[in-house]
């Protein structure tokens, strides 16, 4: 009897001290499958291909690279924005490559790999606007979506501008179209879509200011206290970049071979807190 009590007490102690903590990397390899979560319906990062109905995109390519690097099969799982971290913490997915930007509150819950993508927050202005730099927005009205990271960043990074927030990004863009604001602050991707769509219609044209207001840095996300898995993911990301796999994926979905024509000026490296 005492042996059972002793064993139970020892197990509880080991668990609390972390000594008996399971190694998720070993579990993944033993299972032969990596469950990688991406954000659902997030073009061009993870979205259904119209022809094949398979989920494709930049983040899906990262999931594939990690699975290949670990020598296991990939089980892809599309998740809603709110479900990403809860699904990870309850071990329904092993890792996330799901447009998750590093933030202090998130870093307290989960661990981030080296950055594999940098998502600039930029300002869109009308093509005929005299504004050429961020400094020239001082004293002028700018728009952002209410509750967005772009709105929060604008308060600190563009303190001399007059920020107006709107219920959604479409309403904020409408304010720019109507000349009610001088610039629209949002993620580079959505701003490029607005500009491209306007160009296709042949009406008012728009351009992006060159310098970003802020840069969101995305990493592959793992649960806390999984050093072996995190180290393996970091090595795979470095190798993926060295082999030009990351650049080829960027070019396909975001760069020269895409409608966005973005250029990549970041590298895979530890995330620096701004």
TrEMBL record:
SMART domains: PBPb. SUPFAM superfamilies: Periplasmic binding protein-like II (SSF53850). GO terms for biological process: amino acid transport. Pfam families: SBP_bac_3 (PF00497). InterPro entries: Bact_solute-bind_prot3, Solute-binding_3/MltF_N. One of its GO terms (cellular component) is extracellular region. Residues 33-257 form the Solute-binding protein family 3/N-terminal domain. Belongs to the bacterial solute-binding protein 3 family. This is ABC transporter substrate-binding protein.
